[in-house]
From TrEMBL:
The keyword Acyltransferase applies. The keyword Acyltransferase applies. The gene is odhB. It comes from Billgrantia kenyensis. E2 component of the 2-oxoglutarate dehydrogenase (OGDH) complex which catalyzes the second step in the conversion of 2-oxoglutarate to succinyl-CoA and CO(2). Residues 2-77, 113-188 form the Lipoyl-binding domain. This is Dihydrolipoyllysine-residue succinyltransferase component of 2-oxoglutarate dehydrogenase complex. InterPro entries: 2-oxoA_DH_lipoyl-BS (IPR003016), 2-oxoacid_dehydrogenase (IPR050537), 2-oxoacid_DH_actylTfrase (IPR001078), Biotin_lipoyl (IPR000089), CAT-like_dom_sf (IPR023213), E3-bd_dom_sf (IPR036625), PSBD (IPR004167), Single_hybrid_motif (IPR011053).
Length: 516
C-alpha cells in the first residue's frame, strides 16, 4: 500500500508554499527520515522527509508548483530495497566489465558543470544579499553541503551543493545583491581534491544515494544529522536503533530528552581571535560605511510602524528583588544538579507574568482591525540579542511550564538564535513579550511594542539603593520595571494594576505556589 508524502503544516501566517527541489526521482529507493523534497514559503524553507522506507513511486507536485498546507506531494511504495537492488544489478553488469579503478575515476572524468542559483524568492521578497560563502573555489564538497547563505529581510536561506564536486567559479561575491534564481556560482561535479581512503569508507558504509553520513563508527539519517547539529550532540553517545545500528531521528530525540549525549565543554576562544576580527581603520578621522542588513531593515520598519499605529504609553514601578535573590542563592546548586540548567531571574518573571496575564486578560489580548482578540493561553516572547539583530522567540503555554522548563527553553533559544537556527514558526504568535535590558546594564528604558501584541514588559539592572522599610532605611536590591502598552486596548488602571501584581508576586514568590 502506498504511503502519502504530505507538505508540512504551515503556520497561520503562511498561506501556501512552492516546491523548491525534489531530492529523489520516481523509482529511487528511500530510507525512513531521509530528505525527499523542500518546500519554500515566504519566510522559511521547510524540509519534508520520508515517513517510511520504500520507493518513490509517484510525484504529484512538480518543482515550482504551489502547494497548500498538508497537501499530498507524492507517494512511496513498498519494496524500496528490491527496486534498488534491481537497478544495481543492471548497472553492475556493465560496471563489472571495467576495472574498479576506471569506475571510480568516471565521475571525476565526467566533470559535469552546474549553475548554482539563488533560491526562488516568494512574492513578498524582491531580492537578497549574499551573506557568506562557506566554500572556496576548488575546495571539495559533498552533495547537499551548504555552499552559501542568502540573507533576505525575513530569513537566511541556505544554498547547497547539487552534487559531489567543487566550486569552479563564484559569480556573486559576499555582500552582492541577488534576485530570485540568480546564478551565484559555477559548480563542477566530481572536481576538487581526490577522496582519500578515509573519505571513501563512510560513503561505502552508508546506503547508496540515501544521504546518510558516517561520523566515526556511527551512521546517521539526514533528519537525525540535522537534529544532532542543532543540539550540538556527541554522536558517539547516541545508540542507533535503525538497520545496522543506523541512528534515526527518534534516537536523537530520546538522547535530547535524556540529556545523555551532550558534548564536553570546549575551551574558551582566545581573546586575541576576537581582537583580530575587528576592522582596521586608517587616518585621523576614520569612517566605515556598510549596508544595513535586511533583518535590521525589517526591525527598523516594525519599530517605526509600532510607534505610528499604536497609542503607546509606559508605566513604571520598582520591585525589591531580595526574596528572589535569596531563593536563587539557596537553591541554585541543587537546581543545576536536578535540571542541568542554571536558575536565572527570567524563569521567575515569566511565571509571574503568566499569572498576572490570567488576572488581566486585556494585557494578554491583541487588536485585529476593529476586533479585539482575547487569548485563553499565555505565549510569552523573550527578546534575544544576536549579532544580526533582535529576535523574539516564543515560549508556548507558559502557564503550564515549570521554572526549569522556562530556563531550558530560554538557553536553547539564545544558543540557536546566535547560530541562526531559529525557525520562523518559533518567532510568531506570542501574546506578550519580556525584554531584559538589565543584562547590558540598563537602569531604566521604555520598551517598544511588538505588534500585534498590546503590551511589553521591560526588565532592568538590579541596583542596590537605600529604601524605607518599616520606618527604617535599608539597602535593598531594587529593579525598575517598565510596562509599555497600547492605550487603545488597555486602560491606565489595568496597566498599573498589572505591574503592581507582578511586583507583589516577585517580592513574595510563595504567592506563585499558593496562587494568591
Amino acid at each position: 500500500m502506498a504511503t502519502e508524502i504530505k507538505a508540512p503544516t504551515f503556520p497561520e501566517s503562511v498561506a501556501e508554499g512552492s516546491v523548491a527541489a525534489w531530492h529523489k526521482k520516481p523509482g529511487d529507493s528511500v530510507e525512513r527520515d531521509e530528505l525527499i523534497v523542500e518546500i519554500e514559503t515566504d519566510k522559511v524553507v521547510l524540509e519534508v522527509v520520508a515517513p517510511e522506507a520504500g520507493t518513490l513511486s509517484e510525484v504529484l507536485a512538480e518543482e515550482g508548483d504551489t502547494v497548500q498546507s498538508e497537501q499530498v506531494l507524492g507517494k512511496i511504495g513498498a519494496g524500496g530495497a528490491k527496486g534498488g537492488e534491481q537497478k544495481k544489478e543492471k548497472s553492475s553488469d556493465k560496471a563489472d566489465a571495467k576495472p574498479k579503478s576506471e569506475a571510480k575515476a568516471a565521475p571525476a572524468a565526467a566533470g559535469k558543470s552546474h549553475e548554482v542559483k539563488a533560491p526562488t524568492f516568494p512574492e513578498s521578497i524582491q531580492e537578497g544579499t549574499v551573506a557568506t560563502w562557506h566554500k572556496k573555489v576548488g575546495e571539495a564538497v559533498k552533495r547537499d553541503e551548504v555552499l552559501a547563505d542568502i540573507e533576505t529581510d525575513k530569513v537566511v536561506l541556505e544554498v547547497v551543493a547539487p552534487a559531489d564536486g567543487a566550486l569552479a567559479e563564484i559569480k556573486a561575491e559576499e555582500g552582492s545583491q541577488v534576485e530570485s534564481e540568480a546564478v551565484l556560482a559555477i559548480f563542477a561535479e566530481g572536481a576538487g581534491s581526490a577522496p582519500t581512503a578515509a573519505d571513501e569508507a563512510p560513503a561505502a558504509s552508508a546506503d547508496d544515494g540515501s544521504g546518510d553520513e558516517k561520523i566515526g563508527d556511527k551512521i546517521l539519517a539526514p533528519a537525525a544529522r540535522k537534529m544532532v547539529a542543532e543540539h550540538d550532540l556527541d554522536v558517539s553517545k547516541i545508540e542507533g536503533t535503525g538497520k545496522g545500528g543506523r541512528i534515526l531521528k527518534e534516537d536523537v530525540q530520546r538522547a535530547v530528552q535524556a540529556g545523555t549525549a551532550k558534548k564536553s565543554a570546549a575551551p574558551a576562544a582566545a581573546p586575541k581571535q576576537a581582537a583580530a576580527a575587528a576592522p582596521a581603520f586608517e587616518g585621523e578621522r576614520p569612517e566605515k560605511r556598510v549596508p544595513m542588513s535586511r533583518l535590521r531593515q525589517t526591525i527598523a520598519k516594525r519599530l517605526v510602524q509600532a510607534q505610528q499605529t499604536a497609542a503607546m504609553l509606559t508605566t513604571y514601578n520598582e520591585v525589591d528583588m531580595g526574596a528572589v535573590m535569596s531563593l536563587r542563592a539557596q537553591y541554585k546548586d541543587s537546581f543545576v544538579k536536578a535540571h542541568d540548567v542554571k536558575l536565572g531571574f527570567m524563569g521567575f518573571f515569566v511565571k509571574a507574568a503568566s499569572e498576572a496575564l490570567k488576572r488581566f486578560p486585556d494585557v494578554n489580548a491583541s487588536i485585529d482591525g476593529t476586533d479585539i482578540v482575547y487569548h485563553g493561553y499565555q505565549d510569552i516572547g523573550v527578546a534575544v540579542s544576536t549579532d544580526r539583530g533582535l529576535v523574539v522567540p516564543v515560549l508556548r503555554d507558559t502557564d503550564s511550564m515549570k521554572i526549569a522548563d522556562v530556563e531550558k527553553g530560554i538557553v536553547d533559544f539564545g544558543k540557536r538564535a546566535r547560530d541562526g537556527k531559529l525557525g520562523i514558526d518559533e518567532m510568531q504568535g506570542g501574546t506578550f513579550t519580556i525584554t531584559n535590558g538589565g543584562i547590558f546594564g540598563s537602569l531604566m528604558s521604555t520598551p517598544i511594542l511588538n505588534p500585534p501584541q498590546t503590551a511589553i514588559l521591560g526588565m532592568h539592572k538590579i541596583q542596590e539603593r537605600p529604601m524605607a522599610v518599616n520606618g527604617k532605611v535599608e539597602i535593598r536590591p531594587m529593579m525598575y520595571l517598565a510596562l509599555s502598552y497600547d492605550h487603545r486596548m488597555i486602560d491606565g488602571k489595568d496597566a498599573v494594576q498589572f505591574l503592581v501584581t507582578l511586583k507583589e508576586l516577585l517580592e513574595d514568590p510563595a504567592r506563585l505556589l499558593l496562587d494568591i
